[in-house]
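Hi Prof. W.,

I finally got the Flagellar assembly protein H prediction working! I wasn't sure whether to trim anything, so I left the full sequence exactly as given:
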Amino acid sequence: MKTDSLFYRLFQDHPDLVFQLIGDTSPRTGTYAFGSQEVKALNFRIDGILNPPIEAADLPIAFVEVQGYRDQQQILYHSFFAEIFLYLRDYQPSNDWLGILIFTKPSLAPRLPRHFQDYTDSPRLKRVYLDELPADLADRSLELGVLQLIGVKDEVAPERARQLVARARAEVTDVAERNRVVELVLATLVYKFPTLEREAIRQMLGLDELKQTRFYQEMAEEERAEGREEVLALAVPGFLALGMTVEQIAETLQTDVPTIERIIQQQREQN
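And this is what came out:
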């Protein structure tokens, strides 16, 4: 699975979100770890694997695929199941397995090919459509609200986004966590409106006062206290998530564009 970075961030921080989407609210789903794993025999990595703790042999390994565009080549299911079975061959886990396909809307879900018809009503394969999630789902958590925002109609998305930001500001007392939620909302709007200027999206949410936020002020204070280079490296990913350009990040952090470009390149090489 080539997981979109937005979904990857959500599921990595909150692996239980995937299970809540399929109606599983067991506390044990919070023990999963979301990430990628290498298929040694073929030297490639499978993204989007939810692994339970080693001692939880009764919990299934979940393979997650997110589809936000039309499958023009009609290979989605073939690729999805191929990766699952290659993983099972390579690792031969004692755990059972579960496949979860997340579509932003039903029209993007291709028909199940004849080779996989046995999975039509199988509990092994779950299909989720983000635009059909229950209206009250966002009440359970801000992160579920972000997932729901991805699936809502474009004309109501700005208002839903403003509601999520208002909730984050009212309910989340930890500054870093609150800004993380706001960044996710921003990233979601960028995902939904790829042709819209990033500045317009920030203004849409009333976030054009970025330099006056406590988040920015704390980063500036840390820069003075801990050393400029280290703090810049910590700050850049967050500002990239806001959809800011390299030039805007450099201006906000009061540094030069080559420095920001170098930090971004270093972080890509580390990943």
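The chain has a mean pLDDT of 84. Does that look reasonable to you?

Thanks,
D.
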